[in-house]
């Protein structure tokens, strides 16, 4: 999941980096880390180069998936549309990092004003949040397809319900970003994207972060991991029954098992990093 970071502090975030370091030492600054974060307040240049190197292949793969979807009608299924949404969200986040955040860190200079940097960071919020909902819907699709294939065809055989799911995912993401734009003004607290630490920093009430980010992320991740484990057990059971099946069927089953194992381990890893 392409999750983003949030930082909660007890005072205004408009101060300089030394102020934030003092807050960190005094225990008054709290930070949620992201897989793309490479430092709390200071990004190491070699690490930034490494993140950029990793970001390029990821961006290429996601854009290639979008290209395949646009050229192959066989991929235009409900599951395919959800996967497309996630690829687009991933591409946007990676593109933002490669084209703006990484160069900013390499040259050690913020491009544009601080308000522009904040806007760039905030615009990545909607796709990041949408991935949380999309990954949950994808897991439900896999669960029904594995245990109730007939019901799955009846329920998700049409794209209308999938379009509703996609709209919900992106509207939810936009809603969370809007909340974090409006709430600080109402509660007289600060909220800004800090390019130096690649993070969203705020001194708003902790309940904001808990309600909008922490609970949804952990709930979704736990649900998806549980579903993946159930499907993995199902595939292992089916694989044991393929003793007299053809070699092609056995290989297909083994591929499915490997995919589910990778998805479960990958999601567990990203959940631990949140």
From TrEMBL:
The chain crosses the membrane at residues 79-103, 123-144, 156-180, 215-237. Residues 54-263 form the 7TM GPCR serpentine receptor class x (Srx) domain. It comes from the Eukaryota. The keyword Iron-sulfur does not apply. Keywords: Membrane, Transmembrane, Transmembrane helix. The keyword Membrane applies. InterPro entries: 7TM_GPCR_serpentine_rcpt_Srx (IPR019430). PANTHER family: G-PROTEIN COUPLED RECEPTORS FAMILY 1 PROFILE DOMAIN-CONTAINING PROTEIN (PTHR23013:SF27), SERPENTINE RECEPTOR (PTHR23013). This is 7TM GPCR serpentine receptor class x (Srx) domain-containing protein.
């Amino acid at each position: 999941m392409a999750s983003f970071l949030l930082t909660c502090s007890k005072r205004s975030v408009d101060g300089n980096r030394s102020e934030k370091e003092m807050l960190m030492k005094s225990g008054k600054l709290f930070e949620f880390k992201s897989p793309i974060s490479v430092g709390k307040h200071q990004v190491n240049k070699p690490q930034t180069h490494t993140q950029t190197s990793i970001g390029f292949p990821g961006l290429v793969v996601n854009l290639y998936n979008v290209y395949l979807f646009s050229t192959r009608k066989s991929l235009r299924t409900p599951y395919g549309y959800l996967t497309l949404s996630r690829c687009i969200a991933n591409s946007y986040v990676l593109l933002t990092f490669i084209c703006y955040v990484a160069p900013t860190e390499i040259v050690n200079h913020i491009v544009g004003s601080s308000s522009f940097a904040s806007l760039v960071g905030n615009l990545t919020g909607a796709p990041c949040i949408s991935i949380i909902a999309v990954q949950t819907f994808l897991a439900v699709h896999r669960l029904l397809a594995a245990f109730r294939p007939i019901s799955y065809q009846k329920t998700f055989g049409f794209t209308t319900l999938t379009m509703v799911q996609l709209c919900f995912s992106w509207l939810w993401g936009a809603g969370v970003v809007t909340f974090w734009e409006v709430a600080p003004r109402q509660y007289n607290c600060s909220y800004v994207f800090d390019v130096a630490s690649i993070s969203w920093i705020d001194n708003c009430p902790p309940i904001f972060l808990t309600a909008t980010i922490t609970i949804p992320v952990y709930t979704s991740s736990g649900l998806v991991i549980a579903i993946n484990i159930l499907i993995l057990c199902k595939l292992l059971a089916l694989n044991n029954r393929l003793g007299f099946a053809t070699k092609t069927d056995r290989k297909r089953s083994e591929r499915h098992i490997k995919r589910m194992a990778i998805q479960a381990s990958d999601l567990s890893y990203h959940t631990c990093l949140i």
